[in-house]
Design goal:
- The chain has a single domain, classed as Rossmann fold, CATH 3.40.50.
- 38% of the residues lie in helices and 21% in strands.
- The protein has ten helices and seven strands.
- Helix 1 (2-16) crosses helix 9 (198-205), helix 2 runs parallel beside helix 5 and helix 6 runs parallel beside helix 7 (151-165).
- It starts with a helix and ends in a 6-residue tail after the last strand.
Length: 267
């Protein structure tokens, strides 16, 4: 077992050694190089499973105000933005990468409901307040963002989301939460001494931030109970992944939570 992980570690080091230093540059280069999305594509987290998306739609139907806009933070190519837009009149996808936003626009066909995309860093001070000034209180959906952020960035994002949900909004979080070391996480995604599945190798070669645990403790740190009320938790959730181009999906351990602000927040 030790030698197999040692070989896997060498694969990871070799892939990641030429990544740019700036995280936003890494994300944008990653999206610029993507050729295909979906179950047959290059994006590790872009599986088109309807079961996972339906679960989120059901949670939003149960807990979110249907009259509010929905903001999908870290929208990528807009897969979940588009699914949410089947139920809500106004949906906004936001991503750090201009190339991700451009792809989301291309992949979103015209429809009866309002769907738009923005390029923004939602960890920057004031980002949430600026969006709230335009949209008012919002429902916010976040999938697969917090688990690749260090704790200070998570807190910065949470502060902006607090401004964005205002007093009426709801926050739905869906994050991977694999227990154990990083190499175990990679093995769960199909990595081994013979190499890594291409979608996973592409993410590592781009220098995307390493995944971290994101369960109850991490969520409470970023979204403290003094500011947020947890109204739903699923600590046994599964997050869909794309393991091989040309088909082949899987799942990884996840954590889903629905939060609402305490009643004394901004309106």
């Amino acid at each position: 077992m030790r030698w197999t992980r040692a070989v896997l570690l060498l694969h990871v080091i070799r892939l990641a050694r030429r990544a740019p230093r700036d995280v936003s540059t890494r994300w944008d280069r990653y999206w610029a190089d993507i050729r295909d999305t979906g179950d047959h594509g290059d994006v590790l987290w872009d599986a088109s499973t309807s079961d996972e998306a339906q679960r989120y739609l059901d949670l939003l139907a149960e807990y979110a105000d249907p009259t509010l806009p929905v903001v999908d933070v870290g929208c990528g190519n807009g897969r979940f933005t588009r699914r949410i837009a089947t139920r809500f009149d106004h949906t906004v996808g936001v991503d750090l990468s201009p190339h991700a936003v451009a792809r989301a626009v291309r992949e979103t066909p015209p429809g009866p409901r309002r769907v738009e995309y923005r390029n923004a860093d939602m960890t920057e001070p004031g980002a949430g307040a600026r969006l709230a000034a335009e949209l008012g209180a919002c429902t916010v959906f976040v999938r697969g963002v917090l688990h690749v952020m260090p704790a200070p960035q998570r807190r910065a994002l949470a502060a902006n989301l607090r401004d964005l949900v205002g007093a009426r909004g709801t926050l739905l979080l869906a994050e991977t939460n694999h227990p154990g070391p990083l190499l175990g996480y990679l093995e769960n995604l199909g990595a081994g001494p013979r190499g890594l599945p291409p979608p996973l190798a592409r993410a590592i070669a781009a220098g995307l931030p390493r995944p971290r645990p994101c369960g109850d403790a991490e969520i409470d740190d970023a979204f403290p109970p003094t500011d947020w009320v947890r109204v739903f938790t699923d600590a046994d959730a599964r997050i869909a992944t794309v393991l091989q181009p040309g088909g082949g999906t899987g799942t990884i351990a996840g954590h889903v939570a629905v939060l609402r602000p305490h009643g004394d927040g901004p309106r």
